[in-house]
Amino acid sequence: MKFLCLAFGDQQKMSALTESEMRAIGQRCSAYDEELRETGRLVAAGSLDWGAKTLRPKGGKLKVTDGPFTEAKELVGGFVIIEAADFDEAVRIASLHPAARMGEEWGWGIELRPMGGLRTEKIAD
Predict the structure, then answer these.
(1) Contact predicate 109/100, CB 8 Å
(2) N or C end of the chain: which has fewer CB within 10 A?
(3) 82-95 tens-digit pLDDT
(4) Stretch 48-57: mean pLDDT
(5) Greatest extent of the chain over all pairs of C-alpha atoms, in Å
(6) Measured distance between the N- and C-terminal CA atoms of the chain, rounded to whole angstroms
(7) pLDDT of 123 strictly over 60
(8) 123 lies in a domain?
C-alpha cells in the first residue's frame, strides 16, 4: 500500500536559516530517502517551492488564488511517497524521516495519508 507523507514547515523560520543550515537539512532528508530507496520502500520524493496556487470552482467559473490559505502558518515544503504494509508500518517509516524529528525548532511536521492507485503514465506536454 502506498502512503503520501506531506512535509509541512514554517516558511518564516526556514527563511531565517543560513545556506549551510539548509544544505545540512537537505542532506539529512536525502540520506533517509536513500535508505528507503535501498529497502524498496521509497516510491518518490521531492522538495516543493513555498509558492502555490489553488484552483476552485466559484459561481460557475474557475477561481485561481495564491496559496492554500492566506492564514496558514505551515506550508507544504516536500513530499515522500512510501510503500508500507499498513498504516502502522507507514507511521513507523515516516516517524524516522528527519522532517518528523526537526519540527519544534523550524515548525516541521509530517501529514501521512493512504493513497489509492498511483498512476505513473506520462501526460502529454
Answers:
(1) yes
(2) C
(3) 999 999 999 999 98
(4) 81
(5) 49
(6) 29
(7) no
(8) no
The model carries a pTM of: 0.77
Chain centroid offset of residue 11 CA: 14
Any idea what the CATH number is for the domain that residue 71 is in?
Answer: 3.30.70.1060
If we measure between CA atoms, which residue out of 26, 15, 8 comes closest to residue 74?
A: 8
Ranges of beta strands (E only) in the chain are 2-10, 42-47, 53-58, 61-66, 74-83, 109-114
With respect to residue 52, please indicate whether it lies within any of the assigned structural domains.
yes
- Count the Cβ atoms, other than its own, within 10 Å of residue 47: 11
Whether 124 is covered by a domain: the verdict is no
Q: What is the DSSP string of 21-32?
A: HHHHHHHHHHHH
Please list, in sequence order, all residues whose beta carbon lies within 8 angstroms of the beta carbon of residue 90, skipping any fewer than 6 positions away: 1, 3, 82, 84, 112, 114
- Euclidean distance between CA atoms 120 and 49, whole angstroms: 22
C-alpha cell at 69: 490559505
Using CA atoms, how far residue 41 sits from 38, 88, 122, in Å, is: 8, 14, 22
